[in-house]
Structure formats: C-alpha cells, structure tokens
C-alpha cells in the first residue's frame, strides 16, 4: 500500500509497515461479507499466501491476511491462531492485539474483545475506531452508558464517520430514554454528513416521544427542500398531520396520494407505488371516520345545548 494511502486512513503515529497491519486489523471483521462475495475461492487464496509466506516469512501482514480469510468463513479459532505468538516489536504487538480484538468481537466473545481493545487504547488513545469497537463491545454486554460515552469519544476523533455510526449511537441513547441527546447526536451527524437518513431518524424519535408537531415541521422542511417530493415523505406528512390532530389537512394529504395517477399515466406503476396508494386509501378512510365521529359528537352537543335552552325557557316561564 502506498504511504499516502495509508496515512489518509490511519493515525500518523503508525509507521507504513505497521499501518498495513492495522489496516488489515480494521477491515478484517467489518468487511468480511463483502470480501467473501468477491473472493469465494478461499483455498486458492490460502495456497497463494503459503507461497508468499515462504518468500517473506517475517511479514506479519501475511498472517493477518490469512486470519482474514479464516474469519470470513467463520473459522475464528483458526483466525486467532494466525495472531498467536507472532514475533515483532512492542508496537507491532499492539497492532496484533488490535486484530485479535476484532476477531474476538466478531466471534461474539465480547468480554475478551473489550479487555483487548481497552488495553490497546491505553497506549493509543487517539485511535478513533478503537473507541467505537470498545463501545460496541460494551453495548453487546448491556453496558450501554459506557458504550455511549466511548462511542461519542470515537466519533469526535473520527475524521470520516458514516451515517450508520451516528444512528447506532442515537439508538443507544434512545434506549436509555435520552431522546434529546439522541436528537442532538443525529443533528450533529446531519451537519457533518448531510445525510437524509439521519433526518428521518430524528423524525422517528420525535414520533416515539409524542412530539408530532416537531416531527411534522421537520418533515415539511425535508419536502420543501426536495425537488422530487418523494411519496415516502408525503405519506409521512399525512400521518403526522393525523397524529397532530389536523384531520382536515390529513384528509387532503391522504386523498392526494390515494388519487395520484402520475406513475399510472406514465405506465410505470410499481409494487411500492401501489402499496403507497393502498396505505393512503386506508389513511383516508381512517381520517374520514374520525371526522365523521367528531361531527356526530359536535352535532350531539348542539342538540343537547338546544334542548337545554328550550327547557330553561319553559322553566323560566
């Protein structure tokens, strides 16, 4: 791997050779499934690595590549054997322990993974993804409060986070009942990444908390910013109008979706589009039922009031 590529992904404190080791330690468990699809012939890969090892017996990267292949197949014991009693410098040994932490995590041995990554972070506290791994290990062990704290630290250090990492943290915070903190996390991720998925997750959290008005306002902002006006957002807006008690507006929104013929006219009606129409029709019927019951209740109130007025007049006379 060229030095420039390694330095763009890994911390500066790692030398080029150790960077290659750490890169494999990082990608080993996280992308095993993708690698498996791309390189299904594991035996051929192992044979090639055996040949490479004969030419470069001291190259620990070969060991980690072999461990990667075993881990892809779920052979975690074999993968760990590739990282056991590996010669190398003290710094190199730390990187090997990091690789072992990822393997233990993927194999479900979370206590061991947690201990290994905690030990690693004592020496390398600026390694962002180490804190993420520690947080995930703790979440799996139901130590959610610690998981949140360590994951937050990792995200702050991470130069290039992805939306899923913010979603992960927000869901842990939500599980602790900290909805405001979860929304703040997603908003921070939205500012850094500009991901619509994070905005939708905020809306979901606000609905869970019963804050339908805030969820509606956020949905309408997304619709206003979207040139295509996706039906997903239109349906969401209609549901939120209903939940906010704005039944007349909800009826209009559901009817517009139920009667939309744009895709049918273009000959491109899809299963998803038809599902949306069905849901809109169901929403329309539901809202009309609520409005009818509301009208009957109001009419009943007026009738009672009129009867009371007549009775009062008669009594007065």
Structure write-up:
It is a single chain. The protein has 317 residues and is mainly α. It has a domain at 11-23 and 54-152: Tetratricopeptide repeat domain (Serine Threonine Protein Phosphatase 5, Tetratricopeptide repeat), CATH 1.25.40.10. It contains 18 helices and no strands. Mean pLDDT is 79; it is low at 1-38 and 307-317.
Task: Supply database-style keywords.
317 residues; mainly alpha; Serine Threonine Protein Phosphatase 5, Tetratricopeptide repeat; 18 helices; elongated; disordered N terminus; disordered C terminus
By secondary-structure content and strand pairing, the structural class works out as mainly alpha
Note the beta-strand portion: under 5%
Q: Helical segment tally?
A: 18
User: Per CATH, which architecture of the domain at 11-23 and 54-152?
Assistant: Alpha Horseshoe
Number of strands: 0
Unreliable segments of 5+ consecutive residues: 1-38, 307-317
Helix content: over 70%
* Series of H and E elements: HHHHHHHHHHHHHHHHHH
The CATH class of the domain at 11-23 and 54-152: Mainly Alpha
Q: What's the mean pLDDT score? A: 79
Could you give a short account of the major beta sheet?
none
Measured distance between first and last alpha carbons: 102 Å
CATH topology of the domain at 11-23 and 54-152: Serine Threonine Protein Phosphatase 5, Tetratricopeptide repeat
Output the radius of gyration: 29 Å
Shape: elongated
The CATH superfamily label of the domain at 11-23 and 54-152 reads Tetratricopeptide repeat domain
